[in-house]
Design goal:
single chain; alpha/beta; globular; five-stranded mixed β-sheet
Length: 544
């Protein structure tokens, strides 16, 4: 990829989003029902878009919320809905629209007192806590486009399991929402916001303290406090900004919030690799502000806007997400004595194979699934997975007693686990990772894009192992040709080819005329480049 000259630098004022125009477009513009690109489309985690492109307007939220309310009735969900939003500019009006629709559909709503911000993992935690104690099952909706740029909006549904909805559920919501939009949303129930807020079914709820107090049951907060670590936090203007002070106060941490501000233009951000504002806590360019202070802290963290991703900073710098996943999984699997000895390590098939090597060495099974955290929900619910993590810096794990904490990615606990690791072992996660590479080898990992037409992307999604004729990859014998995930047999919507010391996976982009190539070598950068080159040749030979 070509790195922008602006990467890692402060955003010029002329780049900042025009918030009044963004909000005006949300209310005044409507999607063209005959343009598929402007319809409701659920990806790996919800529907996302921008009001400036007619892909995230009030019409979308009216339809999605009505479709969700109907799905709840059809599936017998009678408990409360935990509703949250992040700090993107479009999240505030979308929350108001959602409250109007859900209240009109007699949905019991739990919203943050004072209309504050609510992180994704906190909503998941609230759903699971409710369902553990009540027969009438709760679910949740979070209004967020995750780490996407400031002009974007997003909405996602978490069913009673607490985590991301399955493709079957999101497919039903998507289909019904687009039917409603095509009908002019005339079948959407709605009541004015003030009336909806005052409704008997709408309840103010404190999301902060129950979650913050419960942290002691998943992370060793006493050990962190006892080690008197200097901890730095950059909320990156996200929905977790109001949580860190209570976390520090209740658990006695020496914690400093580097940036305590919320600004819908995200003017405090440094630009990502492509010169765009993006709250990607796994990017050294987006995390440049916190990295400037790395030597002032024993460990520091950044999180994306809805707090389901983590970025771990040590005096050595920002950790690669795959590196921290491997370290976190090993630490948890060797220290959580009340977990089942059979609890597996969950990983996506595009995550680093150093996780596989580590797990084999400590006698734990690997549960490898397609891209998307939804594939870990069942395992985290049953306890058959102790840890589930994906390459894009998202993970969650069980409570210390082996029961479910969240079934969605949780940036808070991944942050605090890094502090626990340092407090208990005296070594930072970066040092732990060096120990892993000394034992298992150093992986060289990268994701690139290659051009593909719409027809080629369709063929890539439908490949079978027999379609791949290559016997070698970068000088090594091919040991696996995968089009379904080994852990659960689900389609990977692409191809993965493995050898003893390397692999690649190819998946079509959902929004661009490219396919993504994830590749890794345990030999060298030159070997990685050869894998990438031959990966494109193999894919071209199979999809034309």
């Amino acid at each position: 990829m070509t790195v922008s000259a602006l990467a890692g630098k402060s955003a010029p004022k002329e780049m900042l989003v025009n918030v009044p125009r963004l909000i005006s477009a949300y209310y005044t513009e409507s999607p063209d029902p005959d343009d598929p690109s402007q319809g409701v489309s659920f990806g790996t985690s919800g529907h996302r878009g921008s009001s400036l492109k007619n892909t995230f307007n009030e019409a979308h939220i009216l339809a999605v919320c009505q479709a969700t309310a109907e799905l709840r009735r059809e599936t017998g969900v009678t408990g409360p809905m935990f509703l949250g939003m992040d700090t993107h500019a479009l999240s505030e009006p979308a929350l108001r629209t959602a409250v109007e629709v859900f209240a009109a559909n007699d949905v019991e709503l739990m919203i943050q007192d004072g209309l504050g911000y609510t992180p994704t993992p906190v909503v998941s935690h609230a759903i699971i806590a409710w369902n553990r104690a009540h027969a009438d099952k709760a679910d949740g909706v979070i209004i967020t486009p995750s780490h996407n740029p400031p002009e974007d909006g997003g909405i996602k549904y978490n069913p009673p399991e607490g985590g991301p909805a399955s493709p079957e559920i999101t497919g039903r919501i998507q289909k019904r929402a687009n039917e409603l939009i095509r009908g002019g949303n005339k079948d959407v129930r709605r009541t004015p916001f003030a009336r909806a807020l005052a409704s008997d079914t709408t309840h103010p709820y404190d999301y902060v303290l129950p979650y913050v107090r419960d942290l002691a049951n998943i992370v060793d907060m006493r050990a962190i406090a006892g080690a008197t670590l200097r901890i730095g936090v950059d909320p990156m203007g996200g929905s977790g900004v109001a949580f860190w002070e209570p976390i520090a106060d209740i658990h006695g941490l020496e914690l400093h919030v580097v940036n305590p501000y919320v600004d819908p233009t995200f003017s405090f951000m440094t630009l990502d690799w492509d010169g765009k504002i993006r709250m990607d806590c796994s990017s050294p360019y987006a995390m440049a502000s916190l990295l400037e202070h790395k030597d002032a802290y024993d460990v520091a963290f950044g999180n994306d806007t809805d707090y389901d991703r983590h970025g771990i900073v040590t005096p050595d710098g920002l950790m690669n997400p795959n590196a921290y996943l491997a370290v976190a999984a090993r630490y948890l699997m060797t220290t959580r004595k009340n977990w089942s000895p059979d609890a597996a390590v969950g990983k996506t098939l595009v995550s680093s194979s150093i996780i596989d090597r580590m797990a084999a060495a400590i006698g734990r099974e690997i549960y490898e699934v397609p891209v998307g955290f939804k594939w870990f929900v069942d395992g985290l619910t049953s306890g058959t997975l102790g840890f589930g993590g994906e390459e894009s810096a998202g993970a969650s794990f069980l409570r210390t007693d082996g029961t479910t904490w969240t079934t969605d990615k949780d940036g808070f606990i991944m942050d605090l686990l890094a502090a626990e690791m340092l407090a208990v072992t005296g070594k930072s996660p970066a040092v732990h990772y060096r120990e892993l590479t000394e034992r298992f080898g150093t992986p060289f990992y990268e994701r690139i894009d290659a051009p593909a037409t719409a027809e080629q992307k369709v063929r890539l999604k439908k490949l079978s192992p027999a379609d791949v004729k290559a016997e070698t990859l970068a000088g090594e014998r091919v040991t696996g040709r995968l089009t379904t995930a080994p852990g659960n047999g689900a389609p990977i919507d692409g191809l993965k080819v493995t050898t003893e010391n390397g692999w690649f996976a190819a998946r079509p982009s959902g929004t661009e005329d490219v396919y993504k190539i994830y590749a890794e070598s345990f030999q060298s950068v030159a070997h990685l480049r050869q894998i990438q080159k031959e990966a494109q040749e193999i894919v071209s030979a199979t999809i034309g």
